[in-house]
Design brief:
This protein is an alpha+beta fold and 203 residues long. The chain has a domain of 138 residues: PurM-like, N-terminal domain (60s Ribosomal Protein L30, Chain: A). 36% of the residues lie in helices and 23% in strands. The protein has a four-stranded mixed β-sheet. Helix 2 packs parallel to helix 3 and helix 4 packs across helix 5. The longest helix has 19 residues. The radius of gyration is 18 Å and the shape is flat. The N and C termini lie far apart (46 Å). The mean pLDDT is 93.
């Protein structure tokens, strides 16, 4: 299966969005950004053996790759615009790609991040997601905006994903934890939440 066949079968349906003028299929994408806005861009990579294992469901790999990158938009107070995907695989695996595309589609819908381009190539398994967003000029949230005396707040629950990882790795032996709690914690690992709305509200 060629690169174009892979794109057509698994990714071409993910490119529609209200600010997408031109999506997958041309030399580059074209996006519409509101006037007097700043473009916010961030890139995250997910690599086999570092960020996921051979037995990680590819649906989870796809969703988490997008959500992890989207969390950078949330941190900047940006509204999602679009994303691109760089995918490297040693060979074409239809079953794995199907699961990956399902996870990507779920995350693209949830975070309003249409997939507008990218690249596929042969090599060790890895994904690189670049997300783009925008915010009104001068309203982006910066790390340098923190000052002594500011309140430090946490959204969500600290440690859920780490506990979920320990469950997946079988390190929870001897700990009495019911099935529902295990499922919740593993989902917190596999389907992290990028708090886009909170970031926008904090601008």
């Amino acid at each position: 299966m060629s690169e174009f066949d892979v794109i057509a079968r698994y990714f071409s349906s993910l490119g529609a969005g209200r600010r997408v003028e031109l999506s997958v299929g041309d030399d580059a994408a074209a996006l519409s950004v509101p006037p007097d806005s700043e473009l916010i861009v961030s890139t995250d990579s997910s690599v086999l053996g570092t960020h996921f294992t051979d037995d990680t469901f590819s649906e989870h790999v796809g969703y988490k790759a997008v959500a992890s990158a989207a969390s950078d938009l949330a941190a900047m107070g940006a509204e999602p615009l679009a994303m691109t995907l760089g995918l490297t695989m040693p060979s074409v695996d239809d079953l794995w790609l199907h699961g990956l595309s399902q996870g990507l589609a779920q995350a693209c819908r949830h975070y309003a991040l249409p997939l507008v381009g990218g690249d596929t190539t042969r090599g060790p398994l890895a994904l690189t997601v670049t997300v783009m967003g925008f915010c009104p000029r001068g309203q982006k949230l910066l790390r340098s905006g923190a000052h002594v005396g500011d309140r430090v707040c946490v959204s969500g629950t600290l440690g859920d994903a780490a506990f979920g990882l320990s469950l997946v790795q079988g390190k929870h032996r001897g700990i009495d934890i019911d099935f529902d709690a295990q499922e919740y914690l593993v989902n917190r690992l596999s389907f992290p939440l990028a708090r886009i709305d909170l970031g926008i509200a904090l601008r």
